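Predicting holo structure, 6-O-phosphono-alpha-D-fructofuranose bound.
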Amino acid sequence: MKTLVEFVWEQQENVKYATGEFSRLLNDIGIAAKIVNRDVNRAGLAGILGFEGSVNVQGENQKKLDVLANNEFIKALRSGKQCAAIISEENDDVVIFDDETTRNAKYIVALDPLDGSSNIEVNVPIGTIFAIYKRKSVGTTVTREDVLQAGTELVCGGYIIYGSSTMLVYTTGNGVNGFTYDPTCGLFVLSHENIKIGDVGGIYSINEANYIYFPEGVKKYIKYCQEDDPETNRPYTTRYIGSLVSDFHRNLLRGGIYIYPGTLKNPQGKLRLMYECVPMAFLAEQAGGKASDGFSRILDIQPEDIHQRCPLFIGSKAMVEKVEELMAAHSSDFRK
Ligand code: P6P
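Done. Tokens:
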């Protein structure tokens, strides 16, 4: 049995910029995850289902658990003193911990505290997605350059899935490892070492209700997935949970592709670049997969705004490359 803390310490010599501070930061995320896990598991009993009555910067009605999860992660990261600022889906602006100690903190965390929260009431797995960047500035207040970094600068990307079991999955650029939460001892324990995604999977995940608004390249890919060709294991199976973390986690373990494309109505799609697409893209690449906006590598995109949206094509490498081929041939007008 190897705990998350033991694993991170062992990995230290491999982690870019790793020092005790990084291990402490990841552990702080683990602490918040345990508290959110407890609250998610008893949501129906603690009067924390339903809407908060507020709207976030995305114009989405915030669920009580959205706000609760956000507060838990901010509290844990503030008290851990390794994080200088947080970018969160639930906060309009960057949350800067501008006190004496955290002014020298080395890291910035981008966070979707509870992705897929529309599924909470119906007991469908939801998740937290996080990305950790190293600051460019030192000893000053956080700068714009600290905050708006491309995915290639990522030190760590990961998620927690609150499902039939709760797992923390992360990468620091040396492969992807998964830790299952053991509530009997309150520890995340290594359960999925060096996760690799197959080059081709048999699952495609996309909300086909939006079919008429999809780019022609995506429409052609969906038809490709549905063709009868036993040699290439088609037709594929379709699975779409409406929870990115759940769909991604299944495709990571079984092979598959998840697509949330730009549409005629929303050319940049729905998902946010910095705290949904980038951490998942880092994980996908580290597991041997691929992640693009249909044309370009997600990790190469230079963010201009902390809440900017981005189309996401992510999963098994050959599947992403097939849809990119169709996007290039039929939907170049969607290229940014
Ligand atoms: P739609 C949840 O709101 C989310 O951000 C992802 O977790 C999920 O995959 C997607 O949106 C679902 O969006 O438009 O298909 O309901």
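Helices lie at 4-11, 20-41, 64-80, 144-147, 216-226, 244-254, 273-286, 317-330.
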